[in-house]
Amino acid sequence: MTQDTAAFFTLDRGTVGTTAALIAPVDGRYRMLAAASAPSALDPESILEDLAWRVARTDASVAGSMEGWREWSRLEVHTGRPPRAVLVAASSETGELLERAFVGGGWSVVARFFEPDPDLIAFGEACLDPQVDAVIVGGRDGVEEAELEAARRLWPRTGALARYRDDLAVIACGPFAERPEGIPDGRLFSLPAPDPVPLTAESMLRGAAQQMGVHLAGRDEPAATDGRTALRTSIASLAGMLGNRVDGIEIGVAAGSRTLAGAEGESSHAAIAAAGLLPSSLLEDEEAGDAVLRWCTLPGDPAVRQDGLRELVLHPWIATDGDGVHLRLAALRAALERLEGIWTSSAAEDGSDAADVLVLSGGAFAALPPAAAALAAIEGIRRTGAVSILHDHAGVLAPLGALPIESDRRRLLADLMDDCLLPLGSALLTGSLGKRGRKEPVFGTMHISSALGEEHLRLEPGILRLIDLPPGMTARLDIDPGDSPVLGVQGRRLSLDVRGGLGGLLIDTRSIPLDLPTGAEQRRSALEAWEAPVWVGSDR
Amino acid sequence: MTRHDPGRFVIPASRPEAGRLLRFALHLADRPLVAPGQRVEMGQPIIQHFRDQEAIEVPTSAAIVGMRPGDVLDNVPVPQPGRRGRKAVAATYRTRVCEHGRDGITRLVAGSGDVTVDAPATGIIEAVTPSRVDMRAEGLAIDAQVGWGRPSSGRIVIAVDGPDAEIQTSSIDVTASGAILVVGARVDTEAMSRARAIGVAAVISGGVASRDLRRLVSSVARQQAALRAAAPFGLLALGGYGRVPIPQHQWDLLVAAEGRSAGILADSRTLIIDGDPAPLLGAASRPAGTVRVVSGEHRDHEGHLVGLSGPRRWPGGTYAPGGFVELLGEDGTPERHCVPLTALERLG
């Protein structure tokens, strides 16, 4: 896809929805002319035709004749359901490394047996679960002889149990030379041994696990570039192009991913099945539902909310108004909480994953008002600092990641940034403002000046303020930290500029991590007070 | 569907389907009682399932070393010492092979407390593997949203006046024994308990509350712990969770099927109705352009999609494309409403 290419479509096909955009050259650069999202059950041809005719009715001159739309090029990516695995290892140490690689590679782990002699019935029944795609055995060289011996026993046992099924993949990760009897070539795979690296770091096993997962879970899907891999590529290109630290957060219905990249390239990445907006476990596991409803501001009987949440799992598209939107916001907050929990579980806690720009992708953000999406993002991924929040509303980033040539991708990104990355606004997270030394603490202050006027705020702890700052505007923040450090600075004033967006500017002095009240009603009240400004203009 | 038909932007409703492939999962010790190619009748035992499983180890011998995982191995002697001066009682295990270990031990799984799984439909067995039995059902399959329980079958009995009605527990009596009861918009714990107690084969409702389902699961678990064998019982909710009227087109189909034999397979959330599908399909069919509102203010109303409104801002503050739907008002006159396209499903 180059500047010589005429109009083309991008298609991001997910497990629940399809997002499409029509892009064409206008006055010497590419512009996004139209975009739409629709349930994946609909024929994508209808969506593309609608885009073409929508533009034709408005101004046919911009993309030439619409009659030939079927012939236009398509940049298409596909995101499938997360593959499911049973993990086996002879020790908990090896098992945890194995799990880290597969969880970071987008797999959902449904059962784990990290011991020399697992219970035969439990192990066998886990393998018989028709939802499981693969049983995966991990082993390492250089461990104690007892573990090596146990691993040598586990491998043929795994192969024997896998013979109950004719569709279960058997994956050896490590030094398993012996071929298990009766497992055909198409179901037997060999991957590298687990490495002692963080979940978010690149490793041979994680890369192989991700590819294997796409292969196994996408057996019935049309062949296309994997959407999460492509999005990862685009986030790195965007960071390189902007020369900023970019944090790409993608929450889909079935899984999520996160990519952190800077001018020098990608620093961390993980695709995490548990970060899906609506995991199927919500249909059976009441505790999983409670963990979501903890974030919900709707009053009333919790049992009715559980029903509502399960309805959302069954019909992810239906909730566009009323309670459904609030349940969706709760589900998004919980998904981000799970993402953050897994991400930080093995990553260094040194603040190195703070970013200048937060890019939100995936269907979970699409069905929320902009300010609500921004709020969920800063509550889920809490890092001290100022960040610009952008939304990949037309799902264009992932398809652009499918382009094989980096320079083509950067050129398109440069052309399309303003059209495709919707500015939701900016957020300033001060960090926890603790009391220090005095009986009467001196709170810091912030002076905000923009073309809209001036505003003066006291930086009291535990406050969330939404300041009106429309897209295209910038505001100057002059901060006097007072007694407590603000943005890690104490004893001197600091100034910074922030950009506006549809959601405005969020000033957040709440604790990091967020400290929610334990009582159900107090928690609901606190959340309701914090999110009230984001619903202004909505019939909540 | 033409280029100008707005219905192509609406998700099609799930359609009744003849010849559905049904999958019955096997556990480690379970035994299939059927063979590929065999015709089975509704209610015929197809699987011997065991409530309890136990791992057994025996020395690998020449007689069993050739057996594959999943193969049946009976008459495995139970190692039990006889009392002093008496001969040991000759008990045996009924097992399936799991593994011939490298340590010279063959590991088996023995089952006890057997329960038969009966075919919920008439059909042909297509495959039998160590992990499942596949059967091609002859009847008409209807998809539900929620399923729970064991495969069961019976005659369809409509127990309420309409799709939005709720059944009174007291109205479930012994005449419903063995039936598949259609109980309206919701079924609560009390009604399900009574239905189970009098031998109802299954209930079909519009919705079921998560809380009632949890209580039912706990009740069954207690019963199993007490080793009381219960008759198969299942539940299908056609609409979803909570109180949900049975979708009108499915209600019409069920009314047309009253008195027919039917079965449910809760694992795959499927109802299979025996007999000629044509009258049932006729009852459920709708003219082209008919849609059903599946959420929001006009939920469960059927109407005609007459046009597209383009993207709109909806009360929750979100933007999504809408469509104009003509619904019948209370006085019977058509009223035009704008509804999010994602809140519709296409029936016609």
The structure class of chain A reads alpha/beta
Q: How large a portion of the residues of chain A is in β-strands, by DSSP E?
A: 25-35%
Anisotropy-based shape of chain B: elongated
How would a crystallographer describe the biggest sheet of chain A?
8 strands, mixed
- Mind telling me which CATH architecture of the domain at 84-217 in chain A this is? 3-Layer(aba) Sandwich
The low-pLDDT segments of chain A are: none
Output the strand order for the largest sheet of chain A.
13-12-11-14-15-16-22-19
Overall geometric form of chain A: globular
Strand content of chain B: 35-45%
Describe the largest sheet of chain B. Answer: 9 strands, mixed
Number of strands of chain B: 24
Give the SSE map.
The complex is a heterodimer of chains A (540) and B (348).
Chain A: E1 8-13, E2 17-26, E3 29-39, H1 44-59, E4 73-78, E5 84-89, H2 92-104, E6 108-114, H3 120-128, E7 134-138, H4 145-162, E8 169-173, E9 188-191, H5 204-217, E10 225-226, H6 227-242, E11 246-251, E12 256-262, E13 265-272, H7 286-293, H8 302-314, H9 323-346, E14 357-361, H10 363-366, H11 370-380, E15 385-392, H12 397-401, H13 406-420, E16 421-429, E17 444-450, E18 453-459, E19 464-467, E20 474-480, E21 494-499, E22 505-508, H14 520-531
Parallel strand pairs in A: 1-4, 4-10, 5-6, 5-7, 7-8, 8-9, 11-14, 14-15, 16-22
Antiparallel strand pairs in A: 1-2, 2-3, 11-12, 12-13, 15-16, 17-18, 17-20, 19-22, 20-21
Helix pairs in contact in A: 2-5, 6-13, 7-8, 8-9, 9-11
Chain B: E1 11-12, E2 17-18, E3 21-25, E4 31-32, E5 39-40, E6 45-59, E7 72-77, E8 92-100, E9 105-118, E10 123-129, E11 132-137, E12 140-143, E13 146-149, E14 152-158, E15 179-186, H1 189-197, E16 202-208, H2 210-225, E17 234-241, H3 248-256, E18 261-265, E19 270-273, H4 278-284, E20 290-293, E21 302-313, E22 319-328, E23 334-340, E24 344-346
Parallel strand pairs in B: 1-24, 14-15, 15-16, 16-17
Antiparallel strand pairs in B: 2-12, 3-11, 4-6, 5-10, 6-9, 7-8, 8-9, 10-11, 12-19, 13-17, 14-18, 18-19, 20-21, 20-24, 21-22, 22-23
